[in-house]
Amino acid sequence: MNYYETLASQAEEINIEPGETSYFSDSKSNLDPRIFREGVLLPSVRDAILTLLYNHLALGYNEASAWLKVYLAGSGVSYNWAAHRTPADLDCLVSVDYPQFRQSNQEYKGWSDSEISAEINQGFRNELHPRTNNFLGEYELTFYVNTNSDITAIKPYAAYSVLDNSWVVPPSVMEPPTDPEWSSAIERDKVKAAEIVNRYTTAHNQIKNAANDAMRINAEAALAVAVQQGSAMFEDIHTSRNTAFSPAGQGFADFSNYRWQAGKQSGVVPALKVLHDMSSEAASRFATTTYGVELPDTSTLIRRAYRP
């Protein structure tokens, strides 16, 4: 089975459907009562988060308590927490003391800060997140290491130190910016995404109704083009959003964050993510079928080459 056939075999119906995002929800006068009481993280929530994190890290690293700091950040710990979405988002950011990490884990002595972050994040994605997507029956809890160990530098909506049980960036009432040019850019995203999804849907239907091999092969090629275009657009929106939460970005009020949040609300981002995930899954399946194993990406191969 070639790549086009692999992609076509996992094709599914995709629709752009409006959704909820806390970014555009009305600010509340209180924090989420399911996790906070009088501005302090509930002990049961704190213990559950730290138990999950430490148990996971203990499987691959030494002395985690000596080199990490743990923060809850983002809309889930702000006054903009009340979107009508299940599960709700809860973001846990991990800061690493890299010199201490290398001291505790000698096999990583030659690794850069970014390589260590990437390795830990890969473990979060592959091993931890499948167990935290329904945290406390309420939240999709995600963990992420940011190479910049200063949590304030990434301009979070709010940030709460789980270890110190105190606010590093206290929450404040925030309203989304209003800018006609931004609204026009969002409309262009909607049009472009709709065109991609329409081309994908047409190709998907042509594959199902193909009368001969030639028609099917042409339709599979058209489907692959639409999937790659959708995947690239998702990467553009997602990667740009990451710059909003960097020393050069503006955090909540950055256009790239506004674009991401508007895309979630309009349904553009979820639809494009399906295409992005489809592309990644097809590449993985094709590699496994062809080579017997899933091929790691280039950055992973480089990291492994430097590991004793």
Jot down its keywords:
2 domains, five-stranded mixed beta sheet, 308 residues, alpha+beta, two-stranded antiparallel ribbon
Describe this structure in words.
This protein is of the alpha+beta class and 308 residues long. It has 2 domains: 3-19 and 177-295, no CATH class; 28-169. It contains 10 helices and 7 strands. The strands form 2 sheets. The protein has a 5-stranded mixed sheet. The chain has a two-stranded antiparallel ribbon with strand order 1-2. It is globular and about 65 Å long. The mean pLDDT is 91.
Strand elements, count: 7
Domain count, please report it.
2
Mean pLDDT: 91
Shape: globular
Write the layout of secondary structure elements.
Blueprint: H1 3-9, E1 36-37, E2 40-41, H2 43-58, H3 64-67, E3 68-73, E4 88-96, H4 98-104, H5 113-128, E5 139-145, E6 159-161, E7 166-169, H6 180-208, H7 213-244, H8 255-266, H9 268-291, H10 298-305
Parallel strand pairs: 4-5
Antiparallel strand pairs: 1-2, 3-4, 3-6, 6-7
Helix pairs in contact: 1-7, 2-5, 6-7, 6-8, 7-8, 7-9
